[in-house]
Design brief:
Elements (H helix, E strand, L loop, with lengths): L4 E2 L4 H9 L5 E2 L6 H10 L4 H17 L6 E10 L2 E3 L5 H11 L3 E12 L2 E14 L4 H15 L16 E5 L2 H5 L3 H10 L6
Parallel strand pairs: 1-2, 1-3
Antiparallel strand pairs: 3-4, 3-5, 5-6, 6-7
Length: 197
């Protein structure tokens, strides 16, 4: 495999690149995210730092096996300094949304480019989002309609679909919120001659 590789099986990230007109291949990162998060927690890393470490680890791991540039990306959610993971069940998703209801949280999205096992470029972007104080009845309906889809999302919501109804305010870049800070990545790919200037 040569050329540009996305070290992710994320359909959302792949779709963002496709829509931007970027040619690439995909490969699973093979990274044990839970172990990395555990080590970072022991070191007292902030959620933003965890996203950066995971993005770099994914890119580095895949770039050891494939020629060319490899894109690694990760996103974390921070509420009062606490790191939230993707919910493991519909009940966990519901509990997470209740914790976020009526409050401001921050999404951290990191992207890294690696070549031959080493990171050659990285970027971290953050966005602040305020959930509205939605009713229990709305939450019940939301979970009925979206339970399966939101389990794959760090915030238990998809802003590009019904999840946008959960919010009263959003301060940040759309691509950062979706988990891939695209403008900076595209600029770097142009600088490296991967994309046309």
């Amino acid at each position: 495999m040569t050329g540009l590789v996305l070290a992710s099986r994320s359909a959302a990230r792949a779709q963002l690149l496709v829509q931007a007109g970027v040619a690439f291949e995909t490969a699973g990162s093979g990274v044990d995210e839970d172990s990395i998060k555990a080590v970072q927690a022991e070191r007292g890393a902030r959620p933003a730092g965890v996203a950066e470490v995971l993005a770099a680890a994914k890119a580095e791991n895949v770039s050891r096996l494939h020629a060319g540039l490899v894109i690694g990306a990760d996103q974390t959610l921070e509420l009062d300094g606490r790191l939230f993971d993707k919910p493991a069940s519909p009940q966990a998703a519901r509990e997470q949304l209740l914790a976020l209801r009526g409050r401001r949280h921050r999404l951290h999205s990191a992207v890294a480019l690696a070549e031959a096992g080493a990171v050659v470029w990285r970027e971290l972007k953050s966005a602040d989002l305020v959930m509205r104080d939605f009713s229990d009845a709305y939450l019940d309906g939301y979970m009925t309609r979206n339970a399966e889809a939101v389990q794959g999302c760090v915030g238990a919501y998809q802003l590009e679909s019904e999840g946008v109804q959960l919010f009263e305010r959003i301060d940040g870049d759309y691509f950062t919120i979706l988990g891939l800070p695209l403008p900076g990545l595209l600029a770097e790919l142009r600088r490296r001659g991967v994309l046309q200037s």
